[in-house]
Amino acid sequence: MKINAVGYATISKSGDILDVYYPDIDFNGLKTDIKNSKDFSSSKKLIELSWNQEDLDGSVKDVSSAYLKLHLISYKFVKPNSINLDGLFSALPNVAWTNQGPISTEEIDERLLDSKLNNSNLYVRSLDKFPSLTDYIIPKNVRIADASRVRLGAYLGSGTTVMHEGFVNFNAGTMGTAMIEGRISAGVVVGKNSDLGGGCSTMGTLSGGNDIRISVGENCLLGANSGLGIPLGDNCTVEAGLYVTAGTKIEQFDEKGLSMGICKGSDLAGCSNVVFIRHSLDGKVMAKFNNSSIELNQELHSND
After folding, report:
1. Per-residue pLDDT tens over the stretch 64-86
2. Among 162, 213, 207, 212, which Cα is nearest to 183's?
3. How far is CA 43 from the centre of its chain?
4. In contact, 274 and 233? CB cutoff 8 Å
5. What is the C-alpha separation between 126 and 135, in angstroms, rounded?
6. For residue 265, is pLDDT > 90?
7. Is the full-model pTM beyond 0.90?
C-alpha cells in the first residue's frame, strides 16, 4: 500500500496549520483527477506526504494527517470505519470558517473589525473543527441541497441525494443510491437504495455511551422522525416517529403472523426483512415480517 499526497495548508499569523487541501492524491495507483498546480499564495504551505498501510492503521498525529484521512474517505478511496481516526479531535483546531476561508479563532475578531470598518464582505459560517465537504471535494453524481450539512470526511455513494434537512457526519455515509432527509451520525453507514425520512435520527458513537456501531442495510426505510439505536439488516422499515433502541421491548412475530414473545431491540440487531411498528391502540412496539420492499424514484437519483 502506497499513498502519495500533495496538499496546501492555510497558515495562521502565529504559524499554526488551520486546514489542508489535498487535490493531488495517488492511492495505490488510484488517482484524483484534479489538475494540480505548484503556483500558490505565499500564505499557503506546501504539504507532501508519503504513507503506507501503517499510517492508515496508526492514530492521527497532526492536522496534516487528519485532513488526509478525511480526504481519503470523501474521495472514496477508503470506506467509513476502515481506517484509524483515533486522535482526530485532538489534532484538529477549532476554526472560524468564513467566505474568505479558514481563520484562526484568535484572529477572527480583528478580521471582523477590519471588514466592518472597510466594508469588506466577511461572514462567519461556523466555528468548528470540521469544514463542509464541498469546500474541498465535489463528489460526482450526488445532490446536496444544503452543503453546510455535509462534513468533510463524509462518504457519499453515487446517486445519493441529501435534502435540505439531511445531515451526514464525517466517517459516515451512503454506499450507493440513497435518499437522505434525516441524520447520518458519525460511524453510521447506509446501504444502497435506502431512504432516511425527514427528521429521522441514527445513533452515533461519539457521545452518549453508545458502543454499538449503527448501520442501515439495503432497501431500508426509516420513517419521518423515527430513530435507530440498533443496526438493521436489509429490507427493513421503522415506522414514522418510532425510536428503536437496544433496550426497547418488542413483541416479535413470525412470517405467519404468530407471536414469538417479547424480546429486546438488541436481539434483532442486524436482522433483515423486519418492519418495526406500534400497535395503534396500546402503543406496544412490534416486529413483523416485512413482505414489501421500498423502491426509490430513480429519476430523483439520476444526479449527472
Report:
1. 999 999 999 999 999 999 999 99
2. 162
3. 30
4. yes
5. 13
6. yes
7. yes
Instruction: Give the N- to C-terminal CA distance of the chain in Å, as an integer.
Output: 32
Distance CA 269, CA 255 (A): 18
53 Cα distance to chain centroid:
23
Q: Are 303 and 142 in contact (CB under 8 A)?
A: yes
Catalytic residue among 48, 106, 165, 181: 181
C-alpha gyration radius of the chain = 22
Lookup result for grid cell 442495510: 217
* Alpha-carbon span 64 to 45, nearest angstrom: 11
Contact 124, 98 (CB under 8 A): yes
> In terms of Cα–Cα distance, which of 9, 41, 14 is closest to 104?
14
Distance, CA of 255 to CA of 259 (rounded, Å): 10
DSSP the chain: --EEEEEEEEE-TTS-EEEEEEEEEEETTEE--PPP-S---TTEEEEEEEE-HHHHHSPP-SHHHHHHHHHHHHTTSS-TTSS--TTHHHHSPPEEEETTEEEETTTHHHHHHHHHHTT----EEEEESS-BGGGT---TT-EES-GGGBBTTEEE-TTEEE-TT-EE-TTEEESSSEEE-SEE-TT-EE-TTEEE-TT-EE--SSSTT--SPPEE-TT-EE-TT-EE-S---SS-EE-TT-EE-TT-EEEEE-TTS-EEEEEEGGGGTT-SSEEEEE-TTT--EEEEE--------GGGG---
Judge whether 239 counts as a catalytic residue. no
- Answer for the pair 156, 142: CB distance below 8 angstroms, yes or no: yes
Q: In this structure, what are the phi and psi dihedrals at residue 67, rounded to the nearest 5 degrees? A: -70, -35
Cα(247)–Cα(262) distance, integer angstroms: 12
Q: What percent of the chain has pLDDT over 90?
A: 86
Give the C-alpha separation, 145 to 162, whole Å: 6
